[in-house]
Amino acid sequence: MxxxxxxxxHVHPVxxxxxxxxxxxxxxxxxxxxxxxxxxVDATGTVMTxxxxxxxxxxxxxxxxxxxxxxxxxxREPLVVPVPEPSxxxxxxxxxxxxxxxxxxxxxxxxxxxxxxxxxRLVHLDAPEHRRPIDPAYALPGETxxxxxxxPLLVASSASLDALNALIGEGDHAHEGPLPMSxxxxxxxxxxxxxxxxxxxxxxxxxxxTFRVAKPCGRCVVTTTxxxxxxxxxxxxxxxxxxxxxxxxxxxGQNLVPEQxxxxxxxxxxxxxx
Length: 274
Description:
By secondary structure, the protein is mainly beta. It has 3 helices and 21 strands. Strands 1, 2, 14, 15, 16, 17, 18, 19 and 21 form a 9-stranded mixed sheet that branches. A 4-stranded antiparallel sheet has the order 5-11-10-9. A 3-stranded antiparallel sheet has the order 4-3-20, with no helix packed on it. The longest helix is centred in the middle third of the chain and has 12 residues, at 158-169. It is globular.
């Protein structure tokens, strides 16, 4: 088997929107640059995700050189959103944790409200001091995350996806497979490993950047959402429940915490350090 390499890099500028493929990305302490620095919130300030709003999968946000976004979605005219001035903050709730964000303004609110047919606003996480602490059970003092679910990065392996798809093909919902990696919304995808090899990783290097493996990633209904149609099925949760259950969670992929800044690039060697 060839040595592991970084197959692909993905960022999600607005949480829950379509992933963007990148040839390279800057690694910052709280995640990849341009990854989940914005989110859509409801009228209560709670972050909206594909768990309850699968149509978010069909919207996209392209980062602009000045830090703003260009939004696109089916049936909507594109909208350019500048970085909002931090004159007022909004207490935003993400999985029962509060984080201070900056509202992006009325044009963006109207755009998302019309698209989702419910009250919605776009918010921006503007300053390092507004980052959220990582779960202390898996973090070192001072480690933070932006608007990702819980950890700065998520890594998955092509071999594990192939193994999972083989299991799906043997099950009651084989017609739903094979599933693409986009269902799992990783930041980094690694080629050249054995299936499920990542279960044993504790540290790895991608190019010159090292990462600590925090914990396996528990999966939810978002993985059953087709990222190109927003339709939902039963897989992969049905198969993960039979074959990949750990401490009551259905797991696929590993959560990572960067140990340093740097840049990761498609084709970088991946070395398992521990």
